[in-house]
Amino acid sequence: MAPRSLAAAALAALATATAACGESDEDRVRETLEGFESATARKDYRALCADVLSRDLIVKLRSIGLPCELALRRALGPVQAPELTIGRIRVRGDAALAQVTSTARGQRPSQDTIRLVKEGDDWRVSSLSGAQPPTPPRNVAGEREHEEQR
Question: What is the mean pLDDT of residues 72-95?
Answer without folding.
Answer: 95
